[in-house]
Amino acid sequence: MTDPYRIAEAPAAAPKKPGGLLRPLLWLAFFVSAAANVVLSTAVDNPWISSAFGLVALICAGALIVHHRRNRARES
To answer: Which end of the chain is more exposed for a tag (fewer CB within 10 A), N or C?
Structure first.
């Protein structure tokens, strides 16, 4: 049944953003690995463990930058 009071058609649903689940997971991994790096660098005498978490944080940061730059034109 049509609505006689509706002037225009309902807007279509907004298209999903590319990489919908990837970006939140990268942010989560970044924050967890950065926090683990800070905690382990002060609490543990082994620098290799905290360095591994620091490397993961750097990789996540780089992946977030690449993801943003690739999808920047599509989002605007």
So the answer is: N
**What is the pTM assigned to this prediction?**
0.70
Reported as a pLDDT band with limits 50, 70 and 90, residue 16 is low
Residue in 10, 15, 8, 3 with CA at minimum distance from that of residue 71: 15
Residue type, 59: I
Q: pLDDT digits over 38-67, tens only?
A: 999 988 888 899 999 999 999 999 999 999
Pull the structure tokens for residue 59. 């990789």
* Dihedral-angle region of residue 19 (phi above 0 means left; psi in -120 to 50 means alpha; beta otherwise): left
**Cβ–Cβ under 8 Å, residues 57 and 33:** yes
pLDDT of residue 14: 61
> Quick one: how many helices (H) and strands (E) in the chain?
2, 0
